[in-house]
Design a protein that fits this description.
Distance between the termini: 18 Å
Strand order of the largest sheet: 1-7-8-6-4-5
Helix content: 10-25%
Radius of gyration: 17 Å
C-alpha cells in the first residue's frame, strides 16, 4: 500500500530536504530552484523553478502510524488543516485540502526523529521533489511550539508552494528573488512563533504563479507540475 493512498486502515481521517527545514532562531520572495539531478544531462543543464499548475488543488494525508499517540495526531491534524485554510483564505493560485478516502494524495505528513540538528521543528519539499513528504519533528510537540503548530505548517506549506527562505539570497544557493524583502515574511526564521502569512508573501506567490511553463525567469526555466499526476 502506498503511503500516499488514503485508506481507513492507515489514516485517522480523510482529512523534506535540509534547505527547507524550519528552525526557531521571507519573500524577498525567494523562488525555489532545483539543479538538474546527478547523472542527468541535457543540452543546457538549465536550472528549474518548479510550481504547481495554477488553479489546481494540492491534497494531503497524515500518516498517523508515525505520530506518538492520539493526542498528538489530533494536534497535528488540526494544525495542518488550520495552516492550509490560512493559505486558502489568502486566495492564492493553488488550494490545499485533505485527500478524500481512497484518493491519492499529493503529499503525506509524517512524524520523524531528526538526527543532528534537534532544533528543527519541521521540513518540507518543493513541487518537483521526488519525495513529497512533509515531516514534523519532536521539538514541535514541546512547549511553547505545540500551541502554535499551525504557524510551523504555514511556513512548511510555503515551501510546498515553491518558496524558499526569505534569507535564501544570501545564505542558500539555487534561488532567485521576486518581489520585495520583508523580514516579517512567513518564510523567514523568527525568534518565536508570533508570525504568519504576510501580504507580501501572497503578492510574491501571485507573481510567481503568473509565470508560464517553459518561460525563463532570471536564467531559470519555469516547470509547471500537475499535483494530480
Amino acid at each position: 500500500m502506498s503511503p500516499r493512498d488514503n485508506t481507513a486502515a492507515q489514516l485517522l481521517s480523510p482529512f523534506t530536504s535540509s534547505e527547507n527545514d524550519f528552525q526557531i532562531d521571507h519573500m524577498t520572495d525567494q523562488l525555489s530552484y532545483n539543479p538538474p539531478p546527478k547523472g542527468h544531462v541535457n543540452a543546457s543543464s538549465t536550472p528549474v523553478i518548479p510550481i504547481w499548475k495554477p488553479g489546481s488543488t494540492v491534497t494531503y494525508i497524515i500518516d498517523i502510524g508515525t505520530l506518538p499517540g492520539p493526542v498528538n495526531v489530533a494536534t497535528a491534524t488540526i494544525a495542518l488543516a488550520s495552516a492550509a485554510q490560512r493559505w486558502n483564505d489568502s486566495l492564492i493560485p493553488v488550494n490545499f485540502r485533505p485527500a478524500g478516502l481512497g484518493e491519492h494524495a499529493t503529499f503525506v505528513l509524517k512524524y520523524g526523529k531528526r538526527a543532528g540538528n534537534v532544533s528543527v521543528l519541521a521540513s518540507a519539499f518543493l513541487p518537483d521533489h521526488f519525495d513529497p513528504t512533509m515531516y514534523i519533528y519532536p521539538r514541535a510537540f514541546t512547549t511553547p511550539y505545540l500551541r502554535d503548530m499551525d504557524k510551523v505548517f504555514q511556513h512548511e506549506l510555503g515551501h510546498v508552494l515553491g518558496l524558499r527562505h526569505e534569507f535564501a539570497a544570501t545564505s542558500e544557493t539555487h534561488s532567485v528573488q521576486i518581489g520585495c524583502s520583508n523580514s516579517l515574511s512567513v518564510m523567514n526564521y523568527h525568534s518565536d512563533l508570533n508570525f504568519g502569512i504576510q501580504p507580501s508573501d501572497v503578492e510574491g506567490l501571485e507573481a510567481l504563479y503568473k509565470l508560464k511553463s517553459g518561460q525563463f525567469f532570471k536564467g531559470f526555466k519555469v516547470e509547471v507540475v500537475d499535483p494530480e499526476q
